[in-house]
Amino acid sequence: MSDPNHTEPASEAPASAGAGENASLDPAAEVEALRAEAAGLKDRLLRTLAEMENLRRRTERDVADAKTYGVTSFAREMLALADNLRRALDAFPAEARAGLDASVATLIEGVDLTERDFQSRLVRFGVKKIEALGARFDPNQHEALYEIPDETQPAGLVAQVIEPGYTIGERVLRPAKVGVSRGGPKAN
Questions:
Q1: Do residues 183 and 151 lie in contact, with contact meaning Cβ atoms separated by under 8 Å?
Q2: Which tens digit of pLDDT belongs to each residue from 55-75?
Q3: DSSP code of 184?
Q4: Which of 56, 100, 142, 174 could pair covalently with 104 via S-S, beta carbons 3.0-4.6 A apart?
């Protein structure tokens, strides 16, 4: 049942087309083309590997930053609690506590323990208080509210802390609000 009008293509036609193409390149040129292609592929591979390594490092850094700074907003809100606990304790100076009723003294002691516990929990999450008093004024960590004329202290030192500042990791969470000395020789 073969069709008399149907002719089979010559079996040599595809072979001769390919042979003609390969025949135009000599073996040395073909080897050079393959070497150039291999060098290009090796270059692309090395670039891709370097890009993947950079991406891995960047991802690790982003994950570490997220762990360190992920609680920033929450911590900033909690600083008001730390301030209020400190204000409550400062409202009763040590000399005023001596003559208080035992129940009031116990309440003040409880507030003091709560404040210390809260500060230690902040530290556990990377939030640290900026030790500003007596330090050289640093606009990156301190917010100067006023100057205090004092010839006995060098100019530019933090003479008074109005509101403590905090850092989280390497970043300032809230700058310390301070009064800066003015008048004496410049601080080194």
A1: yes
A2: 999 999 999 888 888 888 899
A3: S
A4: 100
pTM to 2 decimal places: 0.65
Number of residues in the chain: 188
Indicate the average pLDDT of the chain: 85
Note the pLDDT of residue 25.
67
Per-residue pLDDT, 20: 47
Residue 15 lies in a domain: no
* Pairwise CA distance, residues 126 & 120, whole Å: 10
Same domain (yes/no): 76, 98:
yes
Last residue of a domain, one of 125, 142, 167: 125
- Alpha-carbon dihedral 54, 59, 62, 68, rounded to 10 degrees: -120
DSSP string, 77-138: HHHHHHHHHHHHHHTS-HHHHTTS-HHHHHHHHHHHHHHHHHHHHHHHTTEEE---TTSBP-
Number of domains, the chain:
3
Nearest 5°: phi and psi at 163? Answer: -140, 125
Confidence at 17, pLDDT banded by 50, 70, 90: very low
Q: Do residues 90 and 134 share a domain? A: no
What does the alpha-carbon distance between residue 158 and residue 174 come to, in Å, rounded to a whole number? 16
